[in-house]
Each structure stands twice: as C-alpha cells, then as structure tokens.
Amino acid sequence: MSAATPGEAGRPGPRARTHASPDAADRTRDRTATLNQLLLAAVVFVLGVLVALGPFRGDTVMFFVGLVVVVIVTAATLVVPWNRLPYGWVAVVPAVDILAITIMQIAAPDSVLGLLWIFPTTWLAGGFGLLGLFGVIVAIAGVISVLTVQNATEVTYRTFLLPLVLIAVATTSHLNSRRSDAQRTLLAKQSQLLRSILDRTRRQEQIVTEVLDAVDFGVVRITPDGRVTVTNEAHGRLQQGMESDDPAEVAAFRDDGTTPLPPAELPLERARRGESFDGQVVWFGVEPGPRRALTTAARRLTDPDGEDAGAIVVSRDVTAELTALRARDDLVASVSHELRTPLTSILGYLDLAIEDPDTPATVRDGLDIAERNAERLLRIVADILAASSSSPSTVEASLIPQLLDIQALVRSAAADAVTRAAARAITIDVTGLEPATAWADALRLRQVVDNLVSNAIAYNKDGGTVFVGTTSDGASSWILVRDTGVGISEADRSRLFERYYKAGADRRAGTGLGLAITRDIVRAHGGELGLHSAVGVGSTFIVKLPATPPEGGTA
Length: 555
Fold this sequence. Notes:
17 helices; 16% strand; 6-stranded antiparallel beta sheet; 5-stranded mixed beta sheet
C-alpha cells in the first residue's frame, strides 16, 4: 500500500494544475516522493533488523545489498530537488526500488520479500497514469519470468499468484488515482463556479447598497426574529438622535405632533410584531428643540417556501410638507375668521334694512340680492374654515362623541332643507327613516347630513326627489341620501372627494370642499362614506357609523 493517497501520489489534474501555483505543485511533488520512499525504507529497515538478529535462510550479503540500495535511494529522495527536474524523473525512484527488492528476493527465493513490490508498483501505477501501469505490468512480468527461469522452479498457480496480486493492486491504485483526479477536477470546477457566483453576488450587493444609499428615504430590513440586518445611509440621517436601545426613551408623537405615541406603536416595533401598514406619520423631538416628521410604511416578506422572511420598513421625511400644510391652514383659518366678523355685521344690517317698512320695494329687492350673496359668501367662508381644520387628526381631537338618535337628527336636517328644496319643486322623502343610533359627535354629524342633503338638492332635477333614510343592525348604523338628479360620471367620481373639485359639466356654484370635509368627518368617527351613481339616474351616498360606543367608551 502507498504511503500517500492516490490523489497525493498521482499527477495533478489539468484543472488543479491550472489553479494551483507552481510552488505549491513543486512542494507536493517533493513531499510525495519523500513519503512513499520513507515508508518503504521503514519496512525494509525493520526486515533488516530481523534478518540481522535472527536466522535467515538465504544470501545475507545479497539481501543487505538490496537494503543498502533502498537506503541510498531514500537518501536521494531527501536530497534531490525534484521540483527542479521534469516530473518523469521521479519514476526513477520506484524503478530502482523494484530492482532493489528483486535483489532481496533473489537472496531468499522461498521468502515473501516479493510482497515489497507493492510499494513501488502502486506508486508507479497511481502516479504516472496508463504509462506507469503499463510499466508495472511489464516490470513484474519480466522480473517473475527471470526469477522463475533462474530458480528453475516448477510453474504452478503459486508462480502466477504474486504477479497477479501485484498487477491487481497496481490497477486498483491506478483507478483510484484517476478517480481522485476526476474528483479534484470536479471540485476545481465547482470552486471556480462558486467563486464566480460569489463575485457576482458581491457586485449585486454593492449595486444594491449604492442604490439604497443614493435614495433620500430610509430603508430597514428586519428578520423574522426582529433583528435589524440592513439599513441605508438615509435611514441613519433621518433617525439621527431619534433612536435608542430603549424605545421608551424616544420622544415620539402622533401625526398631530402633540399626542405622545406609546413605544409599542413606533413603526419599527409594529414591524417587529409582524404588522404591515402604510403612511404612519410620527413626529420625533420635543419643542422648542428640532423636530422631524417621518411617514413610514412596512411590508412583510415571504421566502420561496411561503414562510415569513421578515419585513421591509421604508421611512420618508415629510417635515417640510406638514409644516407647509399647517402654515397654509393657519393662514386660511386666520383670514376666514377675519372675514366672518364683517360678513355677520353686513347680514345683520341688511336684515334691518329689509325689515324697515320705510324701505322702498325696489331697494328691498336689491337688498334681498345682496343678502343672498352675503349668505353665500358666509357659507363659503364656513367651508374654508372647516377645510382648514378637517384633517383626520384635527377632527378626531375636536370630536365629542355620544350616543345619538340619528333618525331624529336626519329628520331635523331634512325639515330644515324643505324651504330650499321647495324653491325648485323638489320633494324630500323621509319615509325611509328607521330607528337607529350612532356613536358620534352631534354637531359634526349634522354637518355631514346637511352637506349631503344640500348636494342632493343642488344636483337634482327640478321637480325631482331626495330620499333620506336611516337603519341599523345593532353593530353599525347607516345614513342614506339619494337623489334623482344628473348623476356623476366615472371621470368625476375618481376625483369627487378632492378638495376644491366641483363635479358636473356646468361646475355648479360652491367651493368644492363639502364632500372632502364630509368624508374626513365620517372617517374621524371610524366610519366610511360610500357612493353609488349612474349618469342621468341619480346618486346615492351611504354613511356607515358605529352604532355603539367602543370598548371602554362611556355612553
């Protein structure tokens, strides 16, 4: 058996030679020759000691001649720089070993010293390919033939047993060497493939990192167990001074900028719990110090097996936008308040002048026109005021909810609109009113109903009908306002709830704020505003509200 594995003893495969450095290949060649020869020398040395100490049936001098040859060859393997010689020169060593072992076998023909041929033959067959295997077969056949003729022994199965065993062992060594070369080549190819994949992955990672660092919104990757594994530079800038190992230390507020946000509702904490959300606005920092508003969204990720793979949290700085909106609303509110006072005074004096019996009829007609336009202007100012304070957070803060009888509230609103409807021969049908309650702010809900009924009259046909109704299932209540008017087109429907947008080809009088304000108020109550409309048939608005107080609420 060979001291080194067939892979060590054999020639390096083509792929291995391609990727291995020359110095490494040379050192391997030196080490292979030394290890194989030292193992044979050790076995021969032990045999020499046994022969010297005990009886030996053979020519002792010839035996030790062969032993000395093995020792000399071993010394040569330690001295000769095989890395400076062509690879084929290494084959001289096992060839000389075969000769030395033949001398020892001749010294004792009846011994089993021929088994030592296993060492050089496996080396030759495993390390020098088919040429080495062919050389082994020729050498063994020649040596056995010479010994058989020299000793004039009878040819029996014993004559062929040793050479057959040697050739079989050499063939096995050759096959193992070839298998080892094939495996080494395959491993080299796989290593090259993995290296290219790793390089490509690194390039892709670098590109992704550069892209993430180039954007102006923060990106955070969270693993399923809640650990943050990836962040970009923008996230670091946005969160500078606003993150802490203890979420309770973070000064965070809701979108109104004043209501403290519990640590458990911070965006990252919600994402760690597995929540997905959009547009959560959080104010960081305490006045009068620097403050920053971030809008955050979280999306859950899944792996190819459909399992939870964590989440991506994206944040964006909206401080300038919210500050500008707040400044605009403050300006509009201030101007509107300033306009209401003189308008109220003008309406009061117009009423006095109209009611004065000394006012001529022609003048009274003019005063009536002025009064109607002043009232219209006052309604516009009221709408603008409502719009400036109708963001969901502002509406929520101003709500004083209670358990309301919405049947009575809608009936009252319908009764107040009868005079305006009668001017165009429009009928208000209240037969659909059923008993229903809602958890809502009375003033705000009346504003909703007034807006919807006013729109149903304004966009109705002369002589048409406005149907109002209420109903409840115990958990939710609904308010319905339906008209028989012109209807709303698909194009108008997509923008109907935008502020200052007025639907209809003729763009009827108004500010375009009523429906936007109405939807904000309904949503602030935890409800929803729905619409069904067909051009030329009419429109139906449906308000859904909670029918009972929420858990912990007081009726």
